Amino acid sequence: MHFYVAVGRCHQDEVFGTKVKGPGLQVKGPGLQVKGPGLQVKGPGLQVKGPGLQVKGPGLQVKGPGLQVKGPGLQVKGPGLQVKGPGLQVKGPGPQVKGPGLQVKGPGLQVKGPGLQVKGPDLQVKGPGPQVKGPGLQVKGPGLQVKGPGLQVKGPGLQVKGPDLQVKGPGPQVKGPGLQVKGPGLQVKGPGLQVKGPGLQVKGPGLQVKGPGPQVKGPGLQVKGPGLQVKGPGPQVKGPGLQVKGPGLQVKGPGLQVKGPGLQVKGPGLQVKGPGPQVKGPGLQVKGPGLQVKGPGLQVKGPGPQVKGPGLQVKGPGPQVKGPGLQVKGPGPQVKGPGLQVEGPGLQVKGPGLQVKGPGLQVKGPGPQVKGPGLQVKGPGLQVKGPGLQVKGPGLQVKDPGFKTKKWQIY
């Protein structure tokens, strides 16, 4: 059966379902679609769209123009925008999202979760793995600490300090620039130079020292031994599992590479690059200064907050919120996921394995921890600090530009 009803320019056409059309309105059924100049509503899963808003969910109520949307597990209010649900709270106009395992705040950006905290824009990332702080750079881990730009690197058998260079370990100890070298059968002092040892030859003031143990030359200073090479005046140190070079600073070890002054730190499961913080780990990637944080189920991008997780997406500055049965879009953030908190404009994001805070940026989680602008990176076998730069690891400690190992010291 067909019915045609004309009112002005509007007509209704029903064929099994219902269709209503007019100058600024379209209504379709039985699945229900409503369209207008500033509005789109779809069902039965329900989608509501407006000039600055899109809301999707199973059993919703929408009111305007101040905008109120309600459903079984959802409440949306405007124009400052409040969205509430069983595992979700979203507040605006600066993004505020809260949920069981997640909090996101902006625009200074804070993201928090059980194993992760991210703060920006100066970037701090914390977790049970490495911790990274920037731009002064600090990286910490169970066997490693790295600090800069003066550079300090520490590890179980190694300490390196600078810029006059100190290296300590159970073997020989080396100091500069006045130069002191000590070891089980060896003592070297300067600048007048004194050298003692069992099988040793010493010359000066250009300085040559030879013997069955380490060999030392000057005035640019070269120290060689079984498993060890030290060169100067810019510190260059080599050992069985370690290489340290300066003054731009390069530190290499069994599971570690540290470069400066732009700073690159690499380790088993970790990469840190600067001066804009870039941190990579087994389940984590952090990049700056626009800020990108990636992990297993997590992506954080900036400077406008963009956060993605297993059930979560947060984007800014116009709010978009998506989750199982829910999408909210508008001038505030974009959010996806069930258990989420986003707050702004300083931006805090919290979740099960995530915390992000800004604008100094702190990121915490079970993986690496990153902080800025002085930059600290901490992890199970790694600590990096800056700008004086300290690097610590299981067999490594480096302080710029000094140096330590279990078998020797350089000052």
TrEMBL record:
GO terms of biological process kind: regulation of RNA splicing
Segments for region (Disordered): 372-400
Main location: nucleus
Gene Ontology terms: cellular component: cytoplasm; nucleus
Record's keyword terms, sorted: Nucleus
Domain of life: Eukaryota
Subcellular location: Nucleus
Name the UniProt record assigns to this protein: Uncharacterized protein
Origin organism lineage: Eukaryota, Metazoa, Ecdysozoa, Nematoda, Chromadorea
